[in-house]
Specification:
Blueprint lengths: L7 E10 L2 E10 L2 E7 L2 E8 L4 H11 L9 E5 L10 E6 L15 E3 L3 E2 L5 H5 L14 H5 L1 H7 L2 H6 L3 E6 L5 E7 L2 H14 L9 E4 L5 H9 L4 E4 L5 H10 L2 E7 L2 E6 L7 H8 L1
Parallel strand pairs: 3-6, 4-7, 11-12, 12-13
Antiparallel strand pairs: 1-2, 3-4, 5-6, 7-8, 9-10, 9-11, 13-14
Length: about 280
C-alpha cells in the first residue's frame, strides 16, 4: 500500500438492511503505532492514523513541552513504507534540550483516544510555566458559527470511513488555514499544531482551534502551549478541561452547532455585547 493511502484500509463486511444481509466492501480508518526516539531516549509511542507524521511528531514534542521552539527540532528521520521500522521516527534535537528521567524523557504510551498518560494533573502543568493566551483577541459570534461547516467540507477521510476526528486552525477572520484528521483527537490537534510550528506560525495568537469531538483536558493544554486563545468543539468539554481553561485563561467554547454555542471560559474574548443589545431591544 502506498504511503498516500495508508490512512484508509479496505475490508469485506456483512451489511444488514431492511431484513436483507449482503457482503459489501467498507473503508476503515487505519490505526498504527508510531514511536519517537531521540538517540537512546524513547520520547513516546502513540496510536495514530498514518499521514502527516512529521507534523504529528513536531506538534507532539512542542505541545508536550519536550521542545519549546522550532529551532529545538533539528531533524526528523522519517522511515519508508517498506522499512522494517516504518513506524519509528528518529528525532534529532538541539543539544540544549535536556531530558529529566521522570518527565520529558519518560517512557509512556498514548492511546488513540485517551491522550498522553501521566499528564493528568493541573499541578504538573503549572510547573511547565505555560503562559496565558493573549487577551487582545476578540471574536465575532457569527464568525464562530460559520466554522463547523467549513470543517465538515474538508474532512475527506471521515467522509469515506466515518471513523476519524478532525482539528482545524482558523485565522482571526475565520479563514480556514489547515485541517488534519486522525483516529485520535489529540493526534489530530498535534498534527495541526505541528503544521504551524514547522511553518514558523507559533505562537498562534489570535487563532481559533476547532475540534470535531469533545474538548478534553489534553487538547486544552496543547492549545495553551501553542498560544491559541480560543478552543471550540462541537461537543462537550470535560470538567478538568473547563478547570484548566479557567485557570490559564483560555476561551473554551462547546456545543458549537448551527447558531448555538456554550462559553465555559474566557467570554471576554467573544463580542457578545452587540448580540445581547439586539436581543434586549
Amino acid at each position: 500500500m502506498s504511503k498516500k493511502n495508508r490512512n484508509i484500509e479496505l475490508t469485506q463486511v456483512t451489511q444488514w438492511e431492511d431484513g436483507r444481509a449482503t457482503r459489501v466492501e467498507d473503508y476503515l480508518a487505519a490505526e498504527e503505532p508510531l514511536e519517537m526516539r531521540a538517540g537512546r531516549y524513547s520520547l513516546g509511542v502513540t496510536l495514530r492514523t498514518p499521514g502527516d507524521d512529521e507534523e504529528l511528531v513536531a506538534g507532539f514534542l512542542f505541545s508536550e513541552g519536550i521542545i519549546s521552539r522550532r529551532e529545538d527540532l533539528v531533524a526528523l528521520q522519517m522511515p519508508s513504507d517498506t522499512s522494517p521500522e516504518k513506524n519509528l521516527v528518529r528525532v534529532t534535537l538541539d543539544p540544549s534540550v535536556r531530558f529529566a528521567s521522570n518527565s520529558a524523557a519518560r517512557r509512556f504510551s498514548a492511546g488513540s483516544a485517551c491522550g498522553v498518560c501521566g499528564k493528568a494533573s493541573i499541578t504538573q502543568l503549572r510547573r511547565r510555566g505555560l503562559h496565558r493566551p493573549t487577551a487582545a483577541s476578540l471574536f465575532d459570534p457569527e464568525m464562530l458559527c460559520q466554522l463547523p461547516p467549513k470543517l465538515r467540507e474538508t474532512q475527506a477521510v471521515f467522509v469515506r470511513t466515518g471513523g476519524l476526528h478532525a482539528a482545524a486552525l482558523f485565522a482571526p477572520t475565520g479563514e480556514l488555514l489547515v485541517v488534519r484528521e486522525d483516529i485520535g483527537r489529540h493526534n489530530a490537534v498535534d498534527k495541526a499544531i505541528g503544521w504551524a510550528l514547522l511553518g514558523g506560525r507559533v505562537p498562534l495568537s489570535g487563532h481559533v482551534l476547532l475540534v470535531s469531538g469533545r474538548g478534553g483536558f489534553e487538547i486544552v493544554q496543547k492549545s495553551i502551549a501553542s498560544g491559541i486563545p480560543l478552543l471550540a468543539s462541537v461537543s462537550a468539554p470535560s470538567s478538568l478541561a473547563v478547570q484548566l481553561a479557567r485557570e490559564l485563561g483560555l476561551t473554551l467554547v462547546g456545543f458549537l452547532r448551527g447558531r448555538r454555542f456554550v462559553i465555559y471560559s474566557g467570554e471576554e474574548r467573544i463580542a457578545l455585547s452587540a448580540s445581547v443589545a439586539a436581543k434586549a431591544s
